[in-house]
UniProtKB/TrEMBL annotation:
It catalyses: alpha-D-glucose 1-phosphate + ATP + H(+) = ADP-alpha-D-glucose + diphosphate. NCBIfam families: glgC, PRK05293.1. It comes from the Bacteria. The record marks Q59, W98 as: Could play a key role in the communication between the regulatory and the substrate sites. Its EC number is 2.7.7.27. Pathway: Glycan biosynthesis; glycogen biosynthesis. Belongs to the bacterial/plant glucose-1-phosphate adenylyltransferase family. Alpha-D-glucose 1-phosphate binds at G164, E179, K180, S190. Residues 7-257 form the Nucleotidyl transferase domain. It comes from Vagococcus silagei. Residues 291-362 form the Glucose-1-phosphate adenylyltransferase/Bifunctional protein GlmU-like C-terminal hexapeptide domain. This is Glucose-1-phosphate adenylyltransferase.
Amino acid sequence: MKTEILAMILAGGKGSRLGKLTQNIAKPAVPFGGRYRIIDFTLSNCVNSNIYNVGVITQYEPLVLNSHLSNGDSWGLDGLNAGLTVLQPFSANDGSKWFEGTAHAIFQNMDFIDRVSPEYVLVLSGDHIYTMDYEKMLEAHKENNASLTVSVIEVPMEEASRFGIMNTDEHNRVIEFEEKPEEPKNNLASMGIYIFNWAYLREVLLTSHQKDGEMLDFGKHVIPSYINSGERVYAYNFEGYWKDVGTVESLWQANMEFILPDNELNMRDPNWKISTRHRVSPPQYLSSSAFVSESLISNGCYIAGEVNHSIISTDAQVRDDAKVVDSIIMPGARIGKGASIYRAIVGENAVVGDLAVIEGDEEIAVVGNGEVIGVCSNED
Protein backbone atom coordinates (compact mmCIF):
# COMPACT_ATOMS: atom_id res chain seq x y z
CA MET A 1 0.00 0.00 0.00
CA LYS A 2 1.40 3.36 -1.01
CA THR A 3 1.95 5.74 1.91
CA GLU A 4 0.29 9.10 1.40
CA ILE A 5 2.45 11.06 3.84
CA LEU A 6 5.67 10.39 5.74
CA ALA A 7 6.77 12.53 8.68
CA MET A 8 10.49 13.28 8.99
CA ILE A 9 11.43 14.75 12.36
CA LEU A 10 14.72 16.67 12.55
CA ALA A 11 16.01 15.79 16.02
CA GLY A 12 19.77 16.19 15.76
CA GLY A 13 20.12 19.69 17.14
CA LYS A 14 22.82 20.44 19.70
CA GLY A 15 20.78 23.09 21.48
CA SER A 16 23.88 25.00 22.53
CA ARG A 17 21.83 27.93 23.87
CA LEU A 18 20.54 25.61 26.60
CA GLY A 19 24.08 25.37 27.93
CA LYS A 20 24.57 22.80 30.70
CA LEU A 21 21.21 21.16 29.96
CA THR A 22 22.40 19.83 26.60
CA GLN A 23 26.06 19.06 27.27
CA ASN A 24 25.40 15.32 27.04
CA ILE A 25 21.90 15.11 25.61
CA ALA A 26 20.19 16.15 22.36
CA LYS A 27 17.82 19.09 22.69
CA PRO A 28 14.69 17.07 21.70
CA ALA A 29 15.41 14.71 24.62
CA VAL A 30 15.48 17.48 27.25
CA PRO A 31 12.82 16.79 29.93
CA PHE A 32 9.71 18.95 29.99
CA GLY A 33 6.66 19.28 32.20
CA GLY A 34 7.67 16.75 34.84
CA ARG A 35 7.16 13.54 32.87
CA TYR A 36 7.74 14.30 29.18
CA ARG A 37 10.62 15.03 26.82
CA ILE A 38 10.39 17.79 24.22
CA ILE A 39 10.12 15.44 21.23
CA ASP A 40 6.99 13.83 22.74
CA PHE A 41 4.88 16.74 21.50
CA THR A 42 5.89 16.36 17.86
CA LEU A 43 5.51 12.57 17.95
CA SER A 44 2.10 12.81 19.62
CA ASN A 45 0.99 15.39 17.06
CA CYS A 46 1.83 12.89 14.32
CA VAL A 47 -0.21 10.08 15.85
CA ASN A 48 -3.12 12.38 16.74
CA SER A 49 -3.05 13.55 13.09
CA ASN A 50 -3.26 9.93 11.87
CA ILE A 51 0.33 9.93 10.61
CA TYR A 52 1.85 6.60 11.57
CA ASN A 53 5.00 6.47 9.44
CA VAL A 54 7.74 8.52 11.07
CA GLY A 55 11.48 8.88 10.56
CA VAL A 56 13.51 10.60 13.28
CA ILE A 57 16.82 12.05 12.12
CA THR A 58 19.36 12.20 14.95
CA GLN A 59 22.91 13.46 15.19
CA TYR A 60 24.16 15.12 18.37
CA GLU A 61 24.41 12.99 21.59
CA PRO A 62 21.65 10.54 20.52
CA LEU A 63 21.98 7.94 23.32
CA VAL A 64 19.21 9.21 25.64
CA LEU A 65 16.99 10.13 22.69
CA ASN A 66 17.37 6.71 21.06
CA SER A 67 16.57 4.95 24.33
CA HIS A 68 13.50 7.13 24.78
CA LEU A 69 12.23 6.48 21.26
CA SER A 70 12.86 2.71 21.33
CA ASN A 71 10.62 1.15 18.66
CA GLY A 72 7.91 3.79 18.92
CA ASP A 73 5.56 1.62 20.95
CA SER A 74 4.85 4.38 23.49
CA TRP A 75 3.17 6.39 20.70
CA GLY A 76 1.50 3.45 18.96
CA LEU A 77 4.05 3.49 16.15
CA ASP A 78 4.89 -0.21 16.33
CA GLY A 79 1.75 -1.70 14.79
CA LEU A 80 0.59 -2.85 11.39
CA ASN A 81 1.12 -0.16 8.70
CA ALA A 82 2.97 1.95 11.26
CA GLY A 83 6.61 2.47 12.12
CA LEU A 84 9.19 4.72 13.77
CA THR A 85 12.67 4.57 12.28
CA VAL A 86 15.67 6.25 13.92
CA LEU A 87 18.00 7.61 11.23
CA GLN A 88 21.58 8.42 12.24
CA PRO A 89 24.43 9.95 10.22
CA PHE A 90 26.45 7.46 8.21
CA SER A 91 29.40 7.49 5.87
CA ALA A 92 28.14 7.70 2.30
CA ASN A 93 30.08 6.87 -0.86
CA ASP A 94 31.22 10.47 -1.15
CA GLY A 95 32.66 10.35 2.38
CA SER A 96 30.13 12.76 3.88
CA LYS A 97 28.91 12.03 7.40
CA TRP A 98 27.41 14.93 9.31
CA PHE A 99 24.23 16.67 8.20
CA GLU A 100 25.10 20.19 7.04
CA GLY A 101 21.57 21.59 7.14
CA THR A 102 17.90 20.67 7.25
CA ALA A 103 17.62 19.91 3.53
CA HIS A 104 20.92 18.02 3.55
CA ALA A 105 19.57 15.79 6.34
CA ILE A 106 16.59 14.90 4.15
CA PHE A 107 18.84 14.30 1.13
CA GLN A 108 21.11 11.98 3.13
CA ASN A 109 18.06 9.87 4.01
CA MET A 110 16.60 9.77 0.51
CA ASP A 111 16.94 5.98 0.31
CA PHE A 112 14.76 5.55 3.38
CA ILE A 113 12.11 7.91 2.01
CA ASP A 114 12.14 6.16 -1.36
CA ARG A 115 11.50 2.82 0.35
CA VAL A 116 8.40 4.26 2.02
CA SER A 117 7.49 5.94 -1.29
CA PRO A 118 5.22 8.72 0.06
CA GLU A 119 3.32 11.22 -2.02
CA TYR A 120 4.01 13.93 0.54
CA VAL A 121 6.80 14.47 3.07
CA LEU A 122 6.04 16.37 6.26
CA VAL A 123 9.24 17.88 7.68
CA LEU A 124 9.11 18.70 11.39
CA SER A 125 11.36 19.94 14.15
CA GLY A 126 11.71 17.79 17.25
CA ASP A 127 12.35 20.65 19.64
CA HIS A 128 9.18 22.74 19.85
CA ILE A 129 6.33 22.60 22.36
CA TYR A 130 2.92 22.74 20.66
CA THR A 131 -0.14 20.76 19.61
CA MET A 132 -1.12 20.85 15.94
CA ASP A 133 -3.33 18.84 13.61
CA TYR A 134 -1.15 18.16 10.56
CA GLU A 135 -4.14 16.67 8.70
CA LYS A 136 -5.66 20.15 8.39
CA MET A 137 -2.40 21.46 6.98
CA LEU A 138 -2.33 18.62 4.44
CA GLU A 139 -5.91 19.42 3.41
CA ALA A 140 -4.91 23.04 2.76
CA HIS A 141 -1.86 21.85 0.80
CA LYS A 142 -4.09 19.77 -1.48
CA GLU A 143 -6.75 22.49 -1.88
CA ASN A 144 -4.09 24.97 -3.01
CA ASN A 145 -2.51 22.42 -5.36
CA ALA A 146 0.71 23.46 -3.65
CA SER A 147 4.20 22.15 -4.23
CA LEU A 148 5.24 23.33 -0.78
CA THR A 149 3.24 24.51 2.24
CA VAL A 150 4.93 26.29 5.14
CA SER A 151 3.22 26.60 8.50
CA VAL A 152 3.41 30.14 9.89
CA ILE A 153 2.45 31.83 13.11
CA GLU A 154 2.01 35.51 13.93
CA VAL A 155 4.73 36.77 16.26
CA PRO A 156 5.06 40.21 17.86
CA MET A 157 6.32 42.64 15.23
CA GLU A 158 9.25 43.63 17.40
CA GLU A 159 10.42 40.00 17.42
CA ALA A 160 9.86 39.27 13.72
CA SER A 161 13.51 39.94 12.80
CA ARG A 162 14.46 36.76 14.72
CA PHE A 163 12.51 34.53 12.33
CA GLY A 164 12.19 33.57 8.70
CA ILE A 165 9.34 35.76 7.45
CA MET A 166 6.84 34.79 4.73
CA ASN A 167 5.41 37.61 2.63
CA THR A 168 2.15 36.47 1.03
CA ASP A 169 -0.53 37.69 -1.38
CA GLU A 170 -4.27 37.83 -0.67
CA HIS A 171 -4.57 34.08 -1.34
CA ASN A 172 -1.81 33.12 1.13
CA ARG A 173 0.60 32.28 -1.67
CA VAL A 174 4.17 33.08 -0.63
CA ILE A 175 5.71 35.64 -2.94
CA GLU A 176 8.83 36.39 -0.92
CA PHE A 177 10.81 34.78 1.89
CA GLU A 178 13.11 36.80 4.13
CA GLU A 179 15.50 35.05 6.51
CA LYS A 180 15.71 37.12 9.72
CA PRO A 181 15.19 40.50 8.01
CA GLU A 182 16.34 43.65 9.80
CA GLU A 183 13.13 45.41 8.74
CA PRO A 184 10.42 42.74 8.32
CA LYS A 185 7.42 43.54 6.13
CA ASN A 186 5.03 41.45 8.24
CA ASN A 187 5.00 39.14 11.24
CA LEU A 188 4.23 35.76 9.62
CA ALA A 189 7.05 33.64 10.99
CA SER A 190 7.97 30.22 9.65
CA MET A 191 7.51 27.46 12.27
CA GLY A 192 9.92 25.10 10.51
CA ILE A 193 7.01 22.84 9.54
CA TYR A 194 6.83 21.97 5.83
CA ILE A 195 4.78 19.73 3.54
CA PHE A 196 6.54 18.92 0.26
CA ASN A 197 5.41 16.97 -2.78
CA TRP A 198 8.13 14.34 -2.52
CA ALA A 199 8.66 13.71 -6.23
CA TYR A 200 9.57 17.34 -6.91
CA LEU A 201 11.63 17.85 -3.73
CA ARG A 202 13.54 14.69 -4.55
CA GLU A 203 14.35 16.04 -8.00
CA VAL A 204 15.49 19.40 -6.58
CA LEU A 205 17.78 17.83 -3.98
CA LEU A 206 19.22 15.25 -6.37
CA THR A 207 19.88 17.83 -9.10
CA SER A 208 21.58 20.12 -6.60
CA HIS A 209 23.78 17.31 -5.33
CA GLN A 210 24.87 16.39 -8.85
CA LYS A 211 25.46 20.04 -9.75
CA ASP A 212 26.83 22.09 -6.84
CA GLY A 213 25.41 20.69 -3.59
CA GLU A 214 24.17 24.10 -2.49
CA MET A 215 20.68 23.03 -1.39
CA LEU A 216 21.66 22.46 2.24
CA ASP A 217 18.99 24.30 4.19
CA PHE A 218 15.25 24.70 3.64
CA GLY A 219 15.08 28.29 4.88
CA LYS A 220 18.22 29.63 3.25
CA HIS A 221 18.19 27.68 -0.01
CA VAL A 222 15.22 25.46 -0.86
CA ILE A 223 12.31 27.81 -0.14
CA PRO A 224 13.83 30.76 -2.05
CA SER A 225 14.58 28.40 -4.94
CA TYR A 226 10.96 27.20 -5.02
CA ILE A 227 9.64 30.77 -5.04
CA ASN A 228 12.11 32.00 -7.68
CA SER A 229 11.27 29.09 -9.99
CA GLY A 230 7.52 29.82 -9.79
CA GLU A 231 6.53 26.78 -7.71
CA ARG A 232 3.25 27.05 -5.82
CA VAL A 233 4.37 27.85 -2.27
CA TYR A 234 1.65 28.59 0.30
CA ALA A 235 1.57 29.66 3.92
CA TYR A 236 -0.62 27.79 6.38
CA ASN A 237 -1.72 30.01 9.25
CA PHE A 238 -1.49 28.25 12.61
CA GLU A 239 -3.45 29.60 15.55
CA GLY A 240 -2.60 28.06 18.88
CA TYR A 241 0.17 27.57 21.39
CA TRP A 242 3.66 27.16 19.96
CA LYS A 243 6.91 27.70 21.79
CA ASP A 244 10.48 27.40 20.58
CA VAL A 245 12.24 26.33 23.78
CA GLY A 246 15.71 26.99 22.45
CA THR A 247 16.92 29.15 25.33
CA VAL A 248 17.03 28.65 29.09
CA GLU A 249 14.57 31.52 29.54
CA SER A 250 12.06 30.15 27.00
CA LEU A 251 12.33 26.60 28.43
CA TRP A 252 11.69 27.90 31.94
CA GLN A 253 8.80 30.09 30.75
CA ALA A 254 7.12 27.24 28.85
CA ASN A 255 7.33 25.02 31.93
CA MET A 256 5.86 27.75 34.14
CA GLU A 257 2.96 28.14 31.69
CA PHE A 258 2.53 24.37 31.74
CA ILE A 259 1.72 24.46 35.46
CA LEU A 260 -1.53 26.35 34.87
CA PRO A 261 -4.51 23.95 34.89
CA ASP A 262 -6.02 25.80 31.92
CA ASN A 263 -2.77 26.14 29.95
CA GLU A 264 -3.11 26.69 26.20
CA LEU A 265 -1.71 23.24 25.42
CA ASN A 266 -4.92 21.84 26.96
CA MET A 267 -3.11 18.79 28.27
CA ARG A 268 -6.29 17.35 29.75
CA ASP A 269 -8.00 17.02 26.37
CA PRO A 270 -8.85 13.28 26.10
CA ASN A 271 -8.99 13.58 22.32
CA TRP A 272 -5.43 14.88 21.98
CA LYS A 273 -3.20 12.95 24.33
CA ILE A 274 0.52 13.59 24.67
CA SER A 275 2.24 10.24 25.04
CA THR A 276 5.70 9.49 26.39
CA ARG A 277 7.92 6.62 27.51
CA HIS A 278 7.34 6.31 31.24
CA ARG A 279 9.84 5.40 33.89
CA VAL A 280 8.72 2.59 36.18
CA SER A 281 8.52 4.51 39.45
CA PRO A 282 6.64 4.16 42.73
CA PRO A 283 3.88 6.61 43.65
CA GLN A 284 4.90 10.07 44.85
CA TYR A 285 5.34 10.51 48.60
CA LEU A 286 4.57 13.72 50.52
CA SER A 287 5.76 13.62 54.13
CA SER A 288 3.99 15.31 57.04
CA SER A 289 6.39 18.25 56.73
CA ALA A 290 5.73 18.78 53.03
CA PHE A 291 3.94 21.87 51.75
CA VAL A 292 3.00 22.01 48.07
CA SER A 293 1.06 24.71 46.20
CA GLU A 294 0.45 25.43 42.48
CA SER A 295 2.89 22.73 41.44
CA LEU A 296 3.18 19.53 39.42
CA ILE A 297 4.62 16.54 41.31
CA SER A 298 5.46 13.46 39.22
CA ASN A 299 5.65 9.76 40.09
CA GLY A 300 8.53 8.56 42.23
CA CYS A 301 9.03 11.91 43.97
CA TYR A 302 9.84 12.29 47.67
CA ILE A 303 8.74 15.66 49.03
CA ALA A 304 9.54 16.69 52.59
CA GLY A 305 10.12 20.41 52.01
CA GLU A 306 8.21 23.33 50.54
CA VAL A 307 7.35 23.50 46.84
CA ASN A 308 5.66 26.59 45.37
CA HIS A 309 4.75 27.13 41.70
CA SER A 310 7.27 24.56 40.49
CA ILE A 311 7.60 21.29 38.60
CA ILE A 312 9.17 18.32 40.37
CA SER A 313 9.94 15.66 37.77
CA THR A 314 9.94 11.88 38.03
CA ASP A 315 12.03 10.37 40.86
CA ALA A 316 13.23 13.75 42.14
CA GLN A 317 13.63 14.52 45.86
CA VAL A 318 13.07 17.65 47.93
CA ARG A 319 14.38 16.95 51.44
CA ASP A 320 13.34 18.41 54.82
CA ASP A 321 13.26 22.20 55.19
CA ALA A 322 14.26 22.70 51.55
CA LYS A 323 12.35 25.35 49.59
CA VAL A 324 11.70 25.27 45.84
CA VAL A 325 10.00 28.28 44.23
CA ASP A 326 9.32 29.07 40.53
CA SER A 327 11.67 26.28 39.47
CA ILE A 328 11.98 23.08 37.46
CA ILE A 329 13.57 20.07 39.12
CA MET A 330 14.32 17.52 36.40
CA PRO A 331 14.16 13.70 36.74
CA GLY A 332 16.28 12.07 39.41
CA ALA A 333 17.58 15.33 40.89
CA ARG A 334 18.03 15.68 44.66
CA ILE A 335 17.56 18.85 46.68
CA GLY A 336 19.22 18.57 50.06
CA LYS A 337 17.96 19.55 53.50
CA GLY A 338 17.50 23.26 54.00
CA ALA A 339 18.48 24.11 50.42
CA SER A 340 16.84 27.07 48.69
CA ILE A 341 16.00 27.00 44.98
CA TYR A 342 14.47 30.09 43.33
CA ARG A 343 13.84 30.70 39.59
CA ALA A 344 16.08 27.84 38.54
CA ILE A 345 16.32 24.72 36.40
CA VAL A 346 18.03 21.79 38.10
CA GLY A 347 19.15 19.21 35.53
CA GLU A 348 18.64 15.45 35.47
CA ASN A 349 20.30 13.53 38.32
CA ALA A 350 21.87 16.71 39.68
CA VAL A 351 22.53 17.08 43.42
CA VAL A 352 22.03 20.34 45.29
CA GLY A 353 23.49 19.80 48.74
CA ASP A 354 22.20 20.71 52.19
CA LEU A 355 21.77 24.43 52.80
CA ALA A 356 22.89 25.31 49.26
CA VAL A 357 21.32 28.39 47.68
CA ILE A 358 20.51 28.55 43.95
CA GLU A 359 18.85 31.84 42.94
CA GLY A 360 18.02 33.20 39.52
CA ASP A 361 17.28 36.83 40.26
CA GLU A 362 18.31 38.54 37.01
CA GLU A 363 18.40 35.43 34.82
CA ILE A 364 17.32 31.83 35.32
CA ALA A 365 19.88 29.84 37.31
CA VAL A 366 20.92 26.47 35.89
CA VAL A 367 22.39 23.39 37.55
CA GLY A 368 23.63 21.02 34.85
CA ASN A 369 22.74 17.38 34.31
CA GLY A 370 24.56 15.30 36.93
CA GLU A 371 26.19 18.37 38.45
CA VAL A 372 26.88 18.22 42.19
CA ILE A 373 26.76 21.34 44.34
CA GLY A 374 27.64 20.75 47.99
CA VAL A 375 26.89 17.59 49.92
CA CYS A 376 23.61 15.92 50.88
CA SER A 377 23.54 14.44 54.38
CA ASN A 378 22.48 10.85 54.85
CA GLU A 379 18.88 10.36 53.82
CA ASP A 380 16.27 9.47 56.38
